[in-house]
Amino acid sequence: MEREVNRYQGCLLGLAVGDAMGYTIDEKSWREIQTAYGPNGLLGYDIANGVVELSSYTQLAAYTANGLLVALTRGRREYYLRYITLALKDWLRSQQFYRDPEKPLCWVSRLPEFRRRHCRDSRMLDTLRTEALGTPSRPRNQNAAPGALTTAVALGLSFQPERMDPAFLGVLAAQTMALTHGNPETILSSVVLAYTIAGILQEPELSLQQQFSQSIAAMEGQFSREFPQAAGLSDMLLQVVEGDKTGSREAMESLHCQTADQCLAGAMYASLACHGDFDTGMILSVNHSGRSSAVGAVTGAILGAQLGAEALPEFYLEGLEGVQPLRELAEDLAKGSPASGFFDDDWDHKYTQGLPSGG
Asked: Furthest-apart CA pair in the chain: how many Å?
């Protein structure tokens, strides 16, 4: 169990590292990054006031995880999407002027580091303000941005065979992304990422290339009838997975990394091209002209799940906001809710009362 928790924690902490490293250069061109940081680009955090802050990508993974854990506490899988939606609404309120008269669902919403206003998807915020959100069959928009892509990381972490079958995980990932992002490739990218994270945790002996190939095939097999775009996305991602992994900046630039599917492709490339070296993966994943924070976050989640928290260099965790809350969320997802008949005061605080540990 300890080794398993280590991978869960590595996933969320790795996500936070990539997010925090990337958001300070998000959407800057490669030339602008070189001008600011030198010919090799950004090689570590650009720290302001000694604190490494988180952006919306870590926040959305944390809120989604919190909502899933509330649903697990209620014990019925039909509650999952409902509580994910409520958790995203909590996040929306955290991004507005923070004077919320309602009792929040998520204990993470009480922590200032999970209310930062960095790298926000404005179309996602506008959609969350509406009463009726989207579904895969009835999208509210055609938003292709990567804003909600990291919700799929939390979904992948929530998967365990005794909780749900793989097909349900795919449906839940599609439904969750479709709440705010209606572009088909974006919805399907969320499915691939959720399957990838779940696969790494359930079958850690497989290589990343095998994990990616299996996840892409599962997405296409499950959703090709509903989404004709599944075959095209599958082909694009497989070209990245099966192609040359030189680890070059030119390769990252060629992927563009602007839309959700492009960001997922960039994260897959960086994860494979670093050959298991977390630091190399982080540097490669953020130094390009695209959405550095999104690609860094997804790459960090993939490598963190594969390598475990103990493999993350300590200098990445020093000064990083939210380390302990992310460790708690990861451990709670790994363990699941307390066994029937047992009372856990800490669990009750977090997932019944919406209060941080000891609150």
From this structure: 60
Give residue 335's identity as a one-letter amino acid code. Answer: K
Give CA–CA dist 316/44, Å, rounded: 8
CA distance 90 to 85: 9
User: How far, in Å, CA of 57 to CA of 69, rounded?
Assistant: 19
**pLDDT tens digits, the chain, 359 residues: what are they?**
565 899 999 999 999 999 999 999 998 999 999 999 999 999 999 987 788 999 999 999 999 999 999 999 987 778 899 999 999 999 999 998 655 556 789 999 999 999 999 999 999 999 999 999 999 999 999 999 999 999 999 999 999 998 899 999 999 999 999 999 999 999 999 999 999 999 999 999 999 999 999 999 999 999 999 999 999 999 999 999 999 888 889 999 999 999 999 999 999 999 999 999 999 999 999 999 999 999 999 999 999 999 999 999 999 999 999 999 999 999 999 988 765 445 688 999 999 999 998 65
Nearest CA among 93, 79, 176 for reference residue 129? 93
- Number of residues assigned to the chain: 359
CA pair distance 185, 144, nearest whole angstrom: 7
Token digits of residue 106:
């998520």
85-122: burial string, b at 16+ Cβ within 10 Å, e else: bbbbbbbbbbbeeeeeeeebbbbbbbbebbbbebbbbe
**Sole residue written with tokens 């691939």:** 192
The answer to whether 140 touches 50, Cβ cutoff 8 Å, is no
Contacts of 261 (CB under 8 A, 6+ apart): 144, 185, 186, 188, 189, 233, 236, 237
Helix 2-23 × helix 278-286 angle, to 10°? 30
Asked whether 10 and 307 are in contact (CB, 8 A), the reply is yes
User: Alpha carbon of 56 to those of 5, 92, 149, 187, 336: distances in Å?
Assistant: 24, 10, 11, 18, 25
C-alpha to C-alpha distance for 258 and 71, rounded to whole angstroms = 33
Task: Find all residues with CB under 8 Å of 81, minimum gap 6, and list them.
Answer: 172, 175, 176
